[in-house]
Amino acid sequence: MDSLTQIVLGAAVGEVVAGKKLGNRAMLWGAVAGTIPDLDVIIGSLFMNELDSLAFHRGFMHSFTFAILFSVLISFIVHRLYSSGYYQQKGHKISAMVGAGLMMIFMAGILNALPFIITGGVNIIVLLISVVLLGYFFYRLWTKYYMKNPMENVEMDVKHWYLFFFLTIVTHPILDCFTTYGTQVFQPFSDYRVAWNNISVFDPLYTAPFLILLLIAAFLKKGKKARLWFTVAGLSISSLYMMWTFWNKAEVNDVFEDSLAKEGIVYERYITTPTIANNLLWNCVAKGDEYFYTGFYSVLDKEPIVKDILKIPINKSVIKGYDGDETVLTLDWFSDGYNSYQGLDNGGIQVNDLRFGRFTVDNEDTDNFVFKFQLQPDSEGALKMTSSAGGPPDNPDGWVKELLDRMMGE
């Protein structure tokens, strides 16, 4: 899921495992550990081409093996940090403050970026709340951390640190498995991508209550039982919401199967995925021999039927001669075979990943896919990715309103 949600989850798990011994440091270390698997994005962007980076993300660094092994390393390092007394020194405090500050600024940036992406402008209320919270955080960091000397002793052995980091790291890829992108949790033994397709990569109804209750817990004193209560309440609410998304998915699957049967559509398999930022409106895609059959269904629709099912040609002929091409095979693996192809005027090929659907629910616009990749043959005749297009359209007011209207049912 999105980075903000992973930070919140890591912080909450950290509080549950070691909040009594570490106080808010448990949340901060948990937040750090919860972001570690997503550092594969930075590694990919620095050292790999676009295609390899796409395949590397949610790969080994999102696996159970990585969580097991890396937790050994980081637990020994952090245990040494506290057992040696180095954490008491001013140099460490400054470094820790810079790291914590950057993380909080990053979180504030995400909070302010979301309304900008959706509406095309800054939300003043969100901006003011972010500034106030950041100011209070830095004030607390200065008065309760930097100026406090000596710091409280940390009584945690290596085994407890290992449990702490393993749980805060491994919950990251487990949460990602609920989304559509796919997570290679069994690397390096298998590149199978686990994707349960029941929640959007960004869902504010999952994250917001979780975040609010965790912030309340963070303002309470170390050792207070209420800290754990608020944290567990956040975890419980988010877990209940996750269970509700499976209920919705089961209903959508039944409706889509019935709708395909009523239309007499023969298909090999199908997939249903929630649209961005909600769990009410779902994208439904069935794969046939020559066409994909796709439509939208909201759990608030009055009739249990997927209306206006659209036929999208698979166009396998477009990649004729490239069946064994590495780029084509990688994108087919990435999308689990839910790819359609289009020939471009410049001689290139566009590959559309239908799992994520389109940003618009208007059936007349069949090219506005969330994920689409453009390929060009090189001098040796092999296809190379030249761009990965997608992202929200330029008219946020239009597609957001259209999405909200369709979400509320028809």
UniProtKB/TrEMBL annotation:
InterPro entries hit by this protein: Transcription_regulator, YdjM-like
Spans through the membrane: 28-48, 60-82, 94-111, 117-139, 160-181, 201-220, 227-247
Keywords: Membrane, Transmembrane, Transmembrane helix
Keyword field contains Transmembrane helix: yes
Top-rank lineage group of the source organism: Bacteria
Membrane among keywords: yes
Name of this protein: Metal-dependent hydrolase
Species: Portibacter lacus
